[in-house]
């Protein structure tokens, strides 16, 4: 058995803070503040894991892991901005929302990068794409255009609506292919489940932008 990515004393603190923020956000108590706290907690946890010396993954897997972490942080920032609130009592923070959108754009750039430079990701997509390499290149182009929309701040709602259609398919067909990732590519089961959960969270942030962007 190997050591966890985060040193054990800090791991329990990280778990406690995550549960606390999630609980208050779920009940709608100071949602903006706790969403901001969750973004900070995730950033600190990722940094602690990186400097802890126990993270030994291939470069292609690091891209998958860190890009989704960045996107989740962006999702929390979007939530902290006040987007998606039914009865908004305070003005929306455009700066927080714009920062969150930039983080989602970075995530999409990493997705596009993986389609070109990661054999593992390419094969995962080619197993399900009709049209083979041509369809893969079209998907690469689409991810690039969506990233440009999020980074520039133009057509964000349209881009979010397109991504809200793409993500469930990617979760079910690509991430959900546990036989490929766990058995063939040796991604630890807990890690793959975390990646699936993160993509579900990204989908939630995208839905907020698609309906209240």
Concise structural overview:
It contains 9 helices and no strands. It is mainly α and 213 residues long.
Measured as a percent range, the helix fraction is: over 70%
Structural class by helix and strand composition: mainly alpha
**Low-pLDDT segments, ≥5 res:** none
Overall number of domains? 2
Protein name: TM101 protein
Pfam families: TMEM101
Transmembrane segments: 6-27, 34-53, 65-84, 96-114, 134-156, 163-183
Keywords: Membrane, Transmembrane, Transmembrane helix
Task: Set down the secondary structure blueprint.
Layout (H helix, E strand, L loop, with lengths): L7 H19 L4 H21 L7 H22 L13 H24 L1 H8 L5 H21 L3 H20 L2 H7 L4 H24 L1
Helix pairs in contact: 1-2, 2-3, 3-4, 3-9, 4-5, 4-6, 6-7, 7-9
Pfam families: TMEM101
Protein name: TM101 protein
InterPro entries: TMEM101
């Amino acid at each position: 058995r190997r050591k966890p990515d985060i040193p054990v004393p800090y791991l329990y603190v990280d778990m406690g803070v995550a549960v606390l923020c999630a609980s208050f956000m779920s009940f709608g108590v100071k949602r903006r503040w706790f969403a901001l706290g969750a973004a900070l907690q995730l950033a600190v946890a990722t940094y602690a894991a990186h400097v802890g010396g126990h993270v030994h993954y291939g470069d292609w897997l690091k891209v998958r892991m860190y890009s989704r972490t960045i996107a989740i942080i962006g999702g929390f920032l979007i939530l902290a901005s006040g987007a998606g609130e039914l009865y908004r009592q305070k003005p929306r923070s455009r700066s927080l929302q714009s920062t969150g959108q930039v983080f989602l754009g970075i995530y999409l750039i990493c997705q596009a990068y993986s389609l070109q430079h990661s054999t593992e990701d390419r094969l995962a997509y080619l197993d399900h794409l009709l049209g083979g390499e041509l369809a893969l290149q079209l998907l690469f182009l689409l991810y690039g255009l969506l990233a440009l929309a999020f980074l520039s701040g133009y057509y964000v709602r349209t881009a979010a609506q397109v991504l809200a259609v793409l993500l469930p398919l990617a979760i079910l067909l690509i991430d959900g292919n546990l036989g490929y990732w766990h058995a063939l590519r040796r991604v630890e089961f807990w890690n793959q489940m975390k990646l699936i959960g993160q993509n579900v969270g990204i989908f939630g942030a995208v839905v907020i932008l698609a309906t209240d962007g």
